[in-house]
Amino acid sequence: MMRAGEPAPEAPGGGAGAERSTEAPTLRAVRLGQTAYREAWAQQLALVDARKTGAGEDQVLLVEHPHVITVGRSRAALANIVAPGDVEIVEIERGGDVTYHGPGQLVAYPIVLLNDGERDLHKFLRNLEEAVIRTVARWGLDAGREPGKTGVWLDGRAGRKKICSIGIACRRWVTFHGLALNVTTDLGYFHRINPCGFESSVMSSMAEELGVGIALADVADALATELATTLGRTLVPR
After folding, report:
1. In what order do the strands lie in the sheet with 88-91?
2. What's the chain look like in SS3?
């Protein structure tokens, strides 16, 4: 489990004495630890409201949620909830279908004001995918993309598998929501839904593919660094 309040490490570049004109924008990594979905959602919305006015700074919230099913704007999303049981269902404004969040899953919410030259949401999604691809590669996993299917995929031990789901929203060019990378996730919870419209068996995790346990905090460190790189920003601590 991630420890609340512990910052991800600073990536190289962008010292205090650098000329502002040559500095990359900053991205502050903030660990929320295990946080209820609605609480993290409210925090995102508050940050978006500030960032829309140019206030505040770009941030990525790194969080692990208790069990929850979230439903995006896709018309088919509600029909893809199969047997939720006692897991809370939350309808939200991000793109995409239905997905599951829970312990052992690393969720990243980049609250980023896209500047001139960055205002391409398809490119932004590809940058999120690239950050995850580079992150899991640090553990020896060869992941990639599936044409027309947003997210990160790999050739798993039991066929083609999806290891990361991605869905964003954007207001006045400020992004929110983000990605969910299965690290040590209990994949059985995906049987309660058709994740993103797929059969639940398509989902996998880093631990499932590697056959070993992984520290979520270590993956959070790596992902924060890679997100800063693919988004063209300099990582700073909280």
Report:
1. 88-91, 68-71, 98-101
2. CCCCCCCCCCCCCCCCCCCHHHCCCEEEEEEEEECCHHHHHHHHHHHHHHHHCCCCCCEEEEEECCCEEEECCCCCCHHHECCCCCCEEEECCCCCCEEEECCCEEEEEEECECCCCCCCHHHHHHHHHHHHHHHHHCCCCCEEEECCEEEEEEEECCEEEEEEEEEEEEECCEEEEEEEEECCCCHHHHHHECHHHCCHHHECCHHHHHCCCCCHHHHHHHHHHHHHHHCCCEEECC
- As annotated, the active-site residues are 196
Q: What is the mean pLDDT of the chain?
A: 91
Instruction: Give pLDDT, residue 113.
Output: 98
| 101-144 confidence digits (pLDDT tens) | 999 999 999 999 999 999 999 999 999 999 999 999 999 999 99
The structural domains of the chain, ordered by start, are 25-233 (3.30.930.10)
- Output the six-digit token pair for 225: 């660094």
- Give the integer Cα–Cα distance in Å for 142 and 154: 6
The 10s digit of each residue's pLDDT in 44-100 is 999 999 999 999 999 999 999 999 999 998 888 899 999 999 999 999 999 889 999
| Beta-ladder partners of 14 | none
